[in-house]
Specification:
Helix content is 32%, strand content 22%. The protein is built from 11 helices and 13 strands.
Length: 326
């Protein structure tokens, strides 16, 4: 594998789910053959509808769950081959910001203890040095020293998310996985957190995997964008290329659903037909063909299109992408 900061090859994760007490059960393909890479200092946006496998992919990349197939490499080293000390260093270098800023914080710990816990675990600072470091990080994310001894329930949602961000930054990571970090916040607070993440990324030289279902937010944050559907990446490319010259019908539908208020201009909306297929029984062939307005039978229904480089640095899994969108 290459020397990208983080890279996956054919990464998959299956779950066996029982349907009832004596039921046969079904195999759920939550993540199916994902190939991704993240370069140093880059922000990769990952977008898709709820239930498409984004959070499962985040947990795989964090090493919280093991893949059913495929590999993950960090700085060229496979996670599966890392020893105890290497895995411990990986835990420091890759941190996570969670969707729910309240449930991710221990309600019995004060803010200073929450932010300082990673420093204690990794032995990076102690005593007065730790307190100074915690206060510096708190100031960096917009929290005052008065917040040091308070509990999470005393804060608003936006402030709790700042606490979560400070905790992730405490150990000076190289990469942060932000799993829907603003979806639980009000719109005005979302803008504040997004701007804060961009500022911190620049100041700390971070790589960022930014996961969201809101494409307008992903566009604002990302250098490259990956679109996920039913556990698969269906399109990935540079931000401007994906938005101005998308190559997959699903991406077209997501972009057309972004609200725009422009006087005198009526926006075209692509309306998808039918419901999202069950991940227990995904469609044969192209996973999107049951909802695609351009599906041509029988090819789309029988042959799964590979994720191919259709244009320089722009990948798509669609049999007719160049015919449809050139």
């Amino acid at each position: 594998m290459s020397t990208s900061l983080l890279e996956t090859d054919s990464l998959s994760r299956n779950f066996f789910v029982k349907s009832a007490a004596f039921g046969k059960g079904h195999m759920l393909k939550a993540v199916d053959g994902i190939n991704l890479r993240l370069e140093p200092g880059e922000t990769l946006g990952l977008a898709g509808e709820s239930g498409c496998g984004k959070s499962t992919l985040a947990r795989l990349l964090m090493g919280l769950i093991a893949p059913s197939a495929g590999v993950i490499a960090f700085r060229g080293k496979l996670l599966s081959e890392m020893g105890k000390e290497e895995r411990f260093a990986f835990r420091k270098d890759v941190q996570m910001i969670f969707q729910d800023p309240f449930s991710s914080l221990n309600p019995r710990m004060r803010v200073g203890e929450i932010i300082g816990e990673p420093l204690a675990i990794h032995g990076l600072a102690s005593g007065s040095e730790r307190r100074v470091r915690i206060q510096n990080i708190m100031n960096k994310v917009g929290l005052s020293e008065d917040h040091f001894s308070r509990y999470p329930h005393e804060f608003s949602g936006g402030q709790r998310q700042r606490i979560g961000i400070a905790r992730a930054l405490a150990v000076s990571p190289q990469m942060i996985i932000a799993d829907e970090p603003v979806s639980a916040l009000d719109l005005s607070i979302q803008a504040q957190i997004i701007n804060l993440l961009q500022e911190l990324k620049r100041d700390f030289g971070l790589s960022l995997l930014f996961i969201a279902h809101d494409l307008s937010v992903v566009r604002h944050m990302s250098d490259r964008i990956a679109i996920m559907y039913l556990g698969k990446i269906v399109e990935i490319g540079r931000r401007d290329a994906v938005f101005s010259h998308f190559l997959h019908p699903y991406t077209e539908a997501l972009i057309s659903a972004i609200p725009q208020i422009i006087p005198g201009i009526r926006k075209h909306h692509t309306i998808l037909q039918g419901d999202i297929p069950s991940p227990f029984t995904p469609p044969s062939g192209c996973p999107f063909h049951t909802r695609c307005p351009y599906a041509e039978m029988p090819l789309c229904a029988t042959v799964a299109p590979p994720l191919e480089e259709k244009e320089p640095h722009h990948f798509c899994s669609c049999h007719f992408s160049l015919k449809l969108f050139r």
